[in-house]
Amino acid sequence: MDSIVTVRALRKVYHVPEREAGVVSAVASLFNRKTREVVAVDSIYFDLPPGEVVGFLGPNGAGKTTTLKMLSGLLYPTSGEALVLGHHPWRRERKFLQQITLVMGQRTQLWWDIPVIDSFEMYRAIYEIPHKQYRHTLDELTELLELAPLLRKPVRNLSLGERMKCEFAAALLHRPRILFLDEPTIGLDVTMQARIRAFIKEYNQRYGSTVLLTSHYMADVEALCKRVIVIHHGTILYDGDLLGLVHRFSPEKTIVVELREGSFDLSHFGRVIEQDGARVVLRVSKDDTPRITSQLLANLPVLDLTVEDPPIEEVIGQVFAQQEVA
Ligand SMILES: Nc1ncnc2c1ncn2[C@@H]1O[C@H](COP(=O)(O)OP(=O)(O)OP(=O)(O)O)[C@@H](O)[C@H]1O
């Protein structure tokens, strides 16, 4: 399938003013400006086909927001190429802007003191959305996000979760084909996180929109993304299946054993990471898993046994740790 986002050798270098502390240095810096280069994104490549939901993962400062800002036309790249729906984003052509959206969990795009519905009206005008289409989309979003009781309230009176639902609606009124979502669930309680996650899934299935999502919550990524792109220090470490990431970077499996009676010492089978009476959680190397599983079943009064991959948070942590050592 043809890509609708194409990224080739995309690079962004920030020039950060540098000066030492103190008044003398402050005055000196007026005449002799020193800057330091920060390579935020260092020649990255990827493609997004239509309709896919892709997780964009990386630790703090990895270059995720910078990439999303370049793809949505808020920043010029230093070099390289990006085409989004056939447009160079930084030219900010109207046709481009009408087809994309950027939602940033840490920023609001609603006017603080006026009712939510008035902000929506402003977006209708900005995007020149025909009235009939606007009413239809607003009705759908109101139903999907349960916005009815919120629309007349000023934004400053909304809880964070309520505001986030309204942010999504505002960002989607013009029916964009591509959604860039930067930490859309940050700071929300688990119930609201799940609500927003379910909404993104439903929206993607209903409209076939393409989503590039950053989140530090792996529950978001596991629920929404089959594919992940992992970025670290501005370079891409992995681009592929979420499951493939687990298999490639995690050398271990978790065996959870439920015994008929407690308490056996299983430390000679593997690393015991949890023991709660007759329930024991073991870590063993992937290669040894079949052998150890058979030994456990043959030698112990096993009621139940499951083999699992380690939690995705842990795997991602290992990816970054390996990179720091390399
Ligand atoms: N406006 C800016 N000026 C200078 N440096 C910047 C600017 N914005 C980001 N950086 C730097 O660029 C690097 C990448 O930052 P970016 O915000 O893209 O990372 P991120 O992966 O989104 O991180 P986080 O998960 O913390 O949001 C960091 O070293 C950051 O300090």
TrEMBL record:
Keywords: ATP-binding, Nucleotide-binding, Transport. Transmembrane segments: none annotated. Gene3D superfamilies: P-loop containing nucleotide triphosphate hydrolases. One of its GO terms (molecular function) is ATP binding. Residues 25-258 form the ABC transporter domain. Pfam families: ABC_tran (PF00005). This is ABC transporter related protein. It comes from Thermobaculum terrenum (strain ATCC BAA-798 / CCMEE 7001 / YNP1).
